Amino acid sequence: MAQTKALKGFKDILPNEIHLWQRVEDVARDIFRRFAFFEIRVPVLEPTALFVRSIGADTDIVEKEMYTFNDKNGDSLTMRPEGTAPVLRAYVEHALHLKSKVARLYTIGPMFRHERPQKGRLRQFHQMSVEVIGAAGPLVDAELMAMAHMILARLGVSAALEINSLGCPDCRPAYNKALVDFLESRRDNLCDDCRRRLDKNPLRVLDCKNKKCRAEVEESPAITDFLCLPCGDHFAAVRAGLDAMAVPYRKNRFMVRGLDYYRRTTFELVTDQLGAQSAVGAGGRYDGLIESLGGAKNTPGIGFAIGMERLVLLLAANEPGQTPGIDLFIAGLGAAAGNYAFRLIHALRGIGISCAMDMDNGGLKSQMKQAGKAKAGHTLIIGDDELATGQAVLRNMASGEQRPAAIDDNDINTIATALAAEIQPGA
Ligand code: HAM
User: Fold this and answer.
1) Which atom of ligand 1 is nearest to the CA of 131?
2) Distance between CA atoms of 171 and 294, rounded to whole angstroms?
3) What is the pLDDT of residue 324?
4) Together in a domain, 238 and 340
5) Residue 222 belongs to some domain of the structure
């Protein structure tokens, strides 16, 4: 049998929910503009090595979740699981550092991770992903968090901002050692996953969702006690920046993120309204990553991504679906009226009216039904009699009120203009 269903974890976004997606995008684009960001669009397919090198070979994403395949040339390709690595690849490839001291880029689009689907977690999902490349100072970190906060606030979504610092290659090894020493003594109490993490990626034990593991790490050493002086100063200045903008936040020393490229500041926007999938957005600083992808030495970077499905779920909880409508349906009854309607509809579309008609020339009852389903604001009914008298019937679909509308002029554009003024007064 032919495949008639979307793949598991892949979702159609239907017309009755599209208004929420468009609102999310419109608000975000407006805020990105205010913060002087420019859009970049990058491919969904990249060489596998790009993600292995940037996200880290020992992460869940690279180990278990990537859609990776060999193409016809035998090259290993991967459907992008996130947007940061492709944007940084583009930054290096096109030498964007020559265009401005600091690149402020955003991209919106689908990402792919082979995760276990559940509410707010899909295999194809969408991110609005933001990167600032070339700025090392802590105020940029605070600025980005404020921007994420502003997007959510404008959408009426409340999410708490949690922040942490993961230190740098100078101070993290000492912390790693202290953490491993601590966890080794409790190895037997950890879940299977965490026992594996302990050997490969010990920081990840800190954000295991398993209750027993959570209890075990409660007393673990805090990374913030191990920060070197520059990292400690940076973290303090980030917090001061947030305070200066009155952006509320809380420190969460257990937040370590699932991608290996982070250094220093990390943050998440969390909500308790989405069950297990609490992060609506997340990000952090990744100084060192651009260099490791072939960019200039010591190029700093920081960014975050907002998960659009999660945002839309939060918005949808507060409002019902909405079938989008059109301005006008033209019901042309019979061949001559149908012809007239066909000319008129084209003239109306030319001046900005959204309209539809039954090109197959159905009966009145069927056409009125179609007008209802199309959620038309008005319907213009034209039959042979109306053509002869030069007066069609214009029906307001909400109130049911009907009034005559002139169709007697030879100039179809004049008719269209008058009709447009009737159905969109003041527009
Ligand atoms: P991430 O934490 O992996 O970070 O993802 C960011 C956001 O994408 C999450 O907070 C969540 O809202 C959404 N998300 C992730 N996976 C799924 C999924 N399977 N289904 C639905 N939504 C999902 C990154 O991807 C980094 N690239 C963010 C970043 C940009 N860091 C620096 N720059």
Assistant:
1) 33
2) 24
3) 86
4) no
5) no
Domain count, the chain: 2
Ligand 1 lining (C-beta closer than 6 Å): 82-84, 113, 115, 120-122, 125, 127, 129, 131, 258-259, 279-284, 303-305, 307, 309-310
Residue 286 CA: nearest ligand 1 atom is 32
What distance in angstroms lies between residue 206's CA and the mean position of ligand 1's atoms? 18
Nearest CA to ligand 1 atom 2: 282
pLDDT-based confidence at residue 2 (cuts at 50, 70, 90): low
If asked whether residues 69 and 123 sit together in one domain, one would say yes
In a domain, 189, yes or no: no
Pocket test for ligand 1, best of 82, 128, 255, 256 (most atoms within 8 A of CB): 82
pLDDT at 207: 85
pLDDT digits (tens, 9 = 90+) for 69-99: 999 999 999 999 999 999 999 999 999 999 9
Residue of 129, 66, 53, 87 lying closest to 282 (CA atoms): 129
With CA atoms as reference, report the closest residue to 162 among 273, 279, 275.
279
- Indicate the pLDDT class of residue 323, thresholds 50, 70 and 90: confident
Going from the Cα of 115 to the center of ligand 1, the distance in angstroms, rounded, reads: 12
> Domain range holding 138?
18-171+227-316
User: What's the average model confidence in pLDDT over 279-299?
Assistant: 96
User: How remote is the CA of residue 257 from the centroid of ligand 1, in Å?
Assistant: 10
Atom 12 in ligand 1: residue holding the nearest Cα: 307
| Edge-to-edge strand ranges of the sheet holding 160-165 | 38-39, 103-112, 124-133, 301-307, 279-285, 265-270, 160-165, 250-251
Q: How far is the CA of 279 from the centre of ligand 1 (A)?
A: 8
Q: Distance from the CA of 80 to the center of ligand 1, in angstroms?
A: 12
- 151 and 267 in a single domain? The answer is yes
Output the CA torsion sign for 151, 154, 157, 158.
Answer: positive
Return the residue whose CA atom lies nearest to atom 25 of ligand 1.
82
Q: Whose CA is nearest to atom 23 of ligand 1?
A: 307
Q: How far apart are CA 310 and CA 298, in angstroms?
A: 34
Q: Compute the C-alpha angle 66/43/294, nearest 5°.
A: 85
Co-location of 341 and 310 in the same domain: no
pLDDT in tens, 327-354: 999 999 999 999 999 999 999 999 999 9
* Rounded (10°) CA dihedral 19, 21, 27, 30: -110
Residue 314: left (phi > 0), alpha (psi -120 to 50), or beta? alpha
Task: Give pTM, 2 decimals.
Answer: 0.93
Q: Band of the pLDDT at 1, cuts 50, 70, 90?
A: low
